[in-house]
Amino acid sequence: MVEPVDAEKRRLRAVLMREGGAGLNEPAGWRRTAMRLNGILLAATVFLAASDALALSPAAQRGFVFVNTNCSGCHAVGRFGDSPLPIAPPFRTLHERYPVEQLAEALAEGIVVGHPSMPQFTLDPAQIDDVITYLKTLEE
User: Fold this and answer.
1) Nearest CA among 39, 1, 34, 2 for reference residue 24
2) DSSP helix/strand/coil, 7
3) What pLDDT does residue 130 have?
4) What is the pLDDT of residue 84?
5) Is the model's pLDDT at 16 over the cut of 80?
6) By the number of CB atoms within 10 A of the CB, which of 26, 43, 106, 131 ranks highest?
7) Mean pLDDT, the chain, as a whole number?
8) Is 81 left (phi over 0), alpha (psi -120 to 50) or beta?
9) If you write DSSP's letter for every residue of 106-133 in order, what string do you get?
10) pLDDT, tens digit, for every residue of 89-98?
């Protein structure tokens, strides 16, 4: 019985040899394959990020720009991923803790109950609407 890993190695070796690449046991072959995979992953990431941003309303896009600029150093501000600062909750989970609409007052007065290293922000009414609009998109 052929193990799946061995079959996959043979398949990759055949692809590399067919394309004129080095064998799988040679570093150049692995590097070329890794570079191709990195390129594919980068293109997919850019496409997903662009399509996600294009799907947002103008207010949600402005809210995303604000939180990405001011909050992403500590919080995960998108639909997936971990927060860079483990004690900072990902924004996609905020609606599980609070009704997002109720954050408007805190944003207007300045959020002071965050994680210890959280800076205090005071937003103007238009910015608050934009941020709330963006946060609501994360609930979907």
Assistant:
1) 34
2) helix
3) 95
4) 93
5) no
6) 131
7) 77
8) left
9) HHHH---SS-TTPPP----HHHHHHHHH
10) 899 998 898 8
Q: Kindly provide the b/e burial profile for residues 40-78, where b requires at least 16 CB atoms within 10 angstroms of the residue's own CB.
A: eeeeeeeeeeeeeeeeeeebbbbbbebbeebbbebbbbb
CA-based diameter of the chain, in Å? 68
Amino acid at 134: Y
Res. 123: pLDDT tops 70: yes
- Give the count of alpha carbons within 13 A of 94, CB side only: 24
Of the candidates 81, 12, 76, the residue with the CA atom closest to the CA atom of residue 45: 81
Average pLDDT value for residue range 73-82: 91
Which of 60, 83, 87, 59 shows the shortest CA–CA distance to 72? 83
